[in-house]
Amino acid sequence: MEMVCRSNPPLRGQIYVWLFLLFLFVYTFLLTGFTQEKDMREDIVVLNVEVPVRVMYKGKLVDNLKKSDFRLFENGKEQEINGFYLVRKKNEKSEV
After folding, report:
1. What was the pLDDT predicted at 10?
2. Closest Cα partner for 49 from 74, 27, 26?
3. Which contacts qualify for 78-86: CB closer than 8 Å, 24 or more apart?
4. Any idea what DSSP says for residue 28?
5. What are the residue ranges in the chain where pLDDT is below 50?
6. What is the spatial distance between Cα 26 and Cα 29, in angstroms, rounded to a whole number?
7. What's the CA angle centered on 44, arms 41 and 50, to 5 degrees?
8. How far apart are alpha carbons 88 and 63 in whole angstroms?
């Protein structure tokens, strides 16, 4: 007495479905151009740059400065300062 164990062969329809999905994946991959290197270039114009400054003298903050007390240079060329303001923060450790 001989026992033969046979597994169910895959259905022909399932094979076609898997082949179709594989084809679709490869076609989409090629269509979107993932296989080619593309150079990208983007030009931007910077309108404003914030430059935070702290001025200390003998360990104390100098807070009576004006816009005219500062000069700003970029690559050796003086730039216009179009905004100037003082930011004060409350000290967490209050001295009594």
Report:
1. 57
2. 74
3. 82/48, 83/48
4. H
5. 94-96
6. 5
7. 140
8. 9
HSE of 25, CA atoms in CB hemisphere, 13 A: 6
- Cβ distance 66 to 85 under 8 Å? no
The pLDDT of residue 77 is: 95
Give the integer Cα–Cα distance in Å for 22 and 45. Answer: 45
Q: Provide the residue count of the chain.
A: 96
Handedness of CA 6, 12, 17, 21 (dihedral sign): positive
Contact 21, 27 (CB under 8 A): no
